[in-house]
Amino acid sequence: MTYPIAASPAASWRDSALSRVLGSAASWFLFTLCFTLLFLVSTVVMGLGGSCASGGPYEIAVECPDNVAAFAPLSIYGGLLAVGISLFLARGFGTPLTTWGWPVLFIGLGLAFLLANELTGYIIGGLFVVMGAAPLLLELRGSPQRVFLGQRAANGVQFYEGERARRSLLSPTAPNPENAIQPTTAHWLVALAMPVLFGGLGIYVARLWFGV
User: Fold this and answer.
1) Could you report the per-residue pLDDT of 76-96, keeping only the tens digit for each?
2) What is the chain's Cα-based Rg?
3) Which residues does 22 contact at the CB level (< 8 Å), separation at least 6?
4) Among residues 82, 88, 83, 96, which one has the least CA distance to residue 151?
5) What dihedral do alpha carbons 83, 86, 87, 89 form, nearest 10°?
6) CA 15 to chain CA mean position, Å
7) Which residue would you say has higher pLDDT here, 78 or 2?
8) DSSP reduced 3-state for 35
9) What pLDDT, in 10s, does the model give residues 138-183?
């Protein structure tokens, strides 16, 4: 006699629309919070001459301000956690943080270097901008719609992306399956609300937390 195998509880709650929406919202909030803190840390350090230190047994030439010493490591680990939340919970719903995280990080930090108005800053900043823009351009080549809308609705059903859509490094799932649906205006509004509303909230909280 055979018995049916029960569905995994872990899989069922992750597949829910609520899980995807909350995962996307939380990941965008945490990522923009951490990136804004890191950007502010970078601008402060640039203003101090490009380097500072805190603690340790040696004499420190330039002491890091308290907010720099606290937020520099916190922002890095928090940003990685945000991408993990997107991968584990959002899973293709909403404007994909997995696509935008790297470009925002490197282009944003590149701008911080460029604003230093120094030759070294121009070189490093230019390199960072290229490193951030290259993968974004590759994803746009795969499917511009996917870059902004995501690949799935909140219920997990894939969107129809057009006949020219192709797989990409960050979206290896084949586009346009038989059950694909045409995205509606409501799909676009909900997806874009993730970075606009929750990302904007993350920036606001970071500025308050940093004290600017």
Assistant:
1) 999 999 999 999 999 999 999
2) 20
3) 89
4) 96
5) 150
6) 21
7) 78
8) helix
9) 999 999 999 999 999 999 999 999 999 999 988 888 999 999 999 9
CA 195 vs CA 23, 87, 93, 99: distances in Å: 12, 15, 12, 12
14-23, 55-64, 126-135, 136-145: which has the minimum mean pLDDT? 55-64
Question: Could you tell me the pLDDT band of residue 39, with boundaries at 50, 70 and 90?
Answer: very high
Burial call 30-52: b when 16+ CB within 10 Å, e when fewer: bbbbbbbbbbbbbbbbbeeeeeb
CA separation for the pair 162, 183 (Å, rounded):
11
- The pair of structure tokens assigned to 151 is 């690949």
Selection from 12-21, 42-51, 81-90 with the highest mean pLDDT: 81-90
The lowest-confidence range among 2-11, 77-86, 122-131, 182-191 is 2-11
- Count CA atoms within 13 Å of residue 102 on its CB side: 14
Strand runs (DSSP E) across the chain, as ranges?
none
Closest among 148, 157, 140, 142 to 190, alpha carbons compared: 148
Residue 53, SS3 per DSSP: strand
SS3 for 124? helix
Amino acid at 108: G
Half-sphere exposure of 39 (CA within 13 A, CB side): 23
